[in-house]
């Protein structure tokens, strides 16, 4: 482990600058497999960190990014350890990975994208600070698949920040915490001199599925927790809406692994659920939770197809649910109004996330006065909508960063977002980006679309 700078305190570990070859490439010893966060001294809180303001950078280092841990990417990347807080306001440390296109100079006019990945796991091997690094071994990680989305933003010349929004314990699905960590990650990025950003830098927000849920918490918490940030727009893809409905809908089905992962995570934070696990789960059920805790979501899902919670409980799930209603009420999204414009994109026939739950999230936002543009897709399902909606998401965020005027908020139901001609150029650019990422080529800027090309879906 190499630490470039300790801003406050001492970690008590040996810290050296990596040996670099001609051309700036690290020597072979510097690119060996990175330590998982729970073993990496970089993640240890420095003494006195709790006295610092939220978003204060405590430590930073440069890192190498690689596709699936194997193909080095042509980007400049750092990790920032900073002060944040947990669900109850207790100080903790968090990490964000901040990126620029390779060779990019600091630029005060450069916007920042706060991208929240679909970590959807308890294991720290799925945290972006580990999964995106060269040499990382992260079986089942969704975050590694999402690098293509980040690369598309970097090709536009944006700076990107990717916080470990689940925190050091992997608190997947917990209320509010992802917002605190992501907002403090933005604060840290704006203070990090090598990026050259300002306190009023324009910030866009994006995430899909579990990342859409985390992005929802970011924009919901921002008006109270970080009102000084210049958030100009957010795209929330399939952002969960009501976790209770998702939990019950997936139980016993093809994606029954997700409820198991969520229980394994939430029991760490919510005493009522911890009591249910200790009292009502069979020994086999507790072993199942431990298995879900240690694997990435893509690895867990095939193992738990068709599993029902009732098969691992001493009493029916229907009898247990009333004990958890307060927890589910806290997890429900949409009870705090975002202050920035929001685009929500949702498949109608989503096999993972109940579209009615997202309808409710949008309705609650609007009732509280938020400006929400809502696009519902008839033909896409959960996994296909992510790539199909990527050009639309990037274009919409680019318009917000450029300060373009929006029409009145609307809800539009379309056959497919991919059929909108305004985004066909973006499809070509996405394919080009995928090729460059796969081959490890420089992420040269994409050709900007003509100003007359305005989407008819969420203008």
Automatic annotation (TrEMBL):
InterPro entries: AB_hydrolase_fold, Lipase_secreted
Disordered: annotated segments: 1-49
One function term, GO molecular function aspect: triacylglycerol lipase activity
BP GO annotations: lipid catabolic process
Family matches, as PANTHER family: LIPASE 5, PTHR34853
Protein name: Lipase
Organism this protein belongs to: Nocardia yunnanensis
């Amino acid at each position: 482990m190499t630490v470039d700078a300790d801003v406050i305190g001492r970690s008590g570990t040996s810290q050296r600058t990596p040996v670099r070859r001609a051309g700036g490439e690290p020597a072979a010893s510097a690119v060996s497999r990175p330590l998982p966060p729970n073993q990496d001294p970089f993640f240890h809180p420095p003494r006195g960190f709790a006295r610092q303001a939220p978003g204060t950078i405590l430590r930073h280092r440069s890192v190498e990014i690689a596709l699936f841990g194997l193909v080095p990417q042509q980007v400049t990347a750092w990790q920032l350890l900073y002060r944040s807080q947990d669900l109850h306001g207790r100080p903790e440390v968090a990490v964000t990975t901040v990126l620029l296109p390779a060779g990019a100079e600091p630029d005060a006019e450069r916007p920042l994208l706060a991208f929240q990945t679909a970590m959807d796991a308890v294991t720290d091997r799925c945290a972006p600070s580990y999964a995106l690094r060269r040499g990382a071994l992260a079986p089942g990680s969704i975050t590694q698949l999402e690098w293509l989305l980040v690369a598309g933003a970097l090709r536009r010349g944006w700076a990107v920040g990717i916080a470990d929004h689940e925190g050091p314990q992997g608190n997947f699905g917990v209320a509010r915490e992802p917002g605190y960590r992501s907002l403090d990650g933005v604060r840290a990025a704006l203070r990090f001199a090598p990026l050259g950003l300002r306190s009023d830098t324009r910030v866009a927000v994006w995430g899909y599925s579990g990342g859409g849920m985390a992005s929802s918490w970011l924009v919901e918490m921002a008006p109270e927790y970080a009102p000084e940030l210049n958030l100009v727009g957010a795209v929330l893809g399939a952002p969960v809406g009501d976790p209770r409905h998702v939990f019950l809908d997936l139980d016993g089905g093809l994606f029954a692994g997700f409820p198991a992962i969520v229980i394994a995570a939430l029991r760490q934070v919510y005493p009522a659920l911890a009591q249910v696990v200790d009292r009502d789960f069979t020994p086999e059920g507790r072993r199942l939770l431990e298995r879900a805790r240690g694997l990435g979501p893509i690895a867990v899902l095939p193992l738990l197809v068709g599993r029902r919670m009732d098969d691992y409980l001493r009493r029916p799930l229907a009898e247990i649910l009333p004990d958890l209603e307060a927890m589910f009420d806290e997890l429900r999204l949409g009870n705090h109004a975002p202050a920035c414009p929001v685009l929500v994109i949702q498949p109608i026939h989503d096999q993972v996330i109940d579209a009615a739950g997202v309808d409710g999230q949008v309705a609650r936002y609007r009732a509280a006065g938020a400006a929400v543009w809502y696009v519902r897709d008839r033909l896409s399902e959960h996994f296909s909508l992510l790539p199909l909606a990527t050009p639309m998401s990037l274009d919409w965020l680019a318009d917000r960063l450029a300060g373009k005027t929006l029409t009145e908020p609307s809800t539009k139901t379309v056959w497919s977002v991919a059929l909108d001609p305004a985004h066909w150029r973006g499809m070509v650019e996405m394919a080009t980006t995928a090729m460059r990422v796969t081959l490890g080529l420089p992420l040269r800027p994409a050709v900007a679309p003509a100003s007359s090309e305005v989407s008819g879906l969420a203008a």
